[in-house]
Amino acid sequence: MGSSQISNNIRTLRFFNDEMTQEELAKKVGVTRQTIIAIEKAKYSPSLELAFRIAYVFEVPLEEVFTFDPEDEPVK
Predict the structure, then answer these.
(1) Which residues neighbour 55 within 8 Å (Cβ) at sequence distance 6 or greater?
(2) Domains of the chain by range and CATH?
């Protein structure tokens, strides 16, 4: 499998939330800044719990933070 199938809008959401820093978000959800950086760059997929925590911080549905892009080939 190539790059992650999960993309996110965390950077945009941070910008529209008083330009929240990666460090501030990390503290609110209980992870390191490095974890937030990796998630933003789609190098790391968060746990389901962490994904929900991030959505909760921004007060938006999970689907507004993360988008799942299935590959072109159907699952058999």
Answers:
(1) 61, 62, 64, 65, 66
(2) 6-67 (1.10.260.40)
* pLDDT tens sequence across 44-65: 999 999 999 999 999 999 999 9
Tens digit of pLDDT for each residue in 5-24? 889 999 999 999 999 999 99
The residues, ordered by sequence, that sit 6+ positions from 36 with a Cβ below 8 Å of its Cβ are 10, 22, 25, 26, 29
Length of the chain measured in residues: 76
Asked whether the beta carbons of 38 and 44 are under 8 A apart, the reply is yes
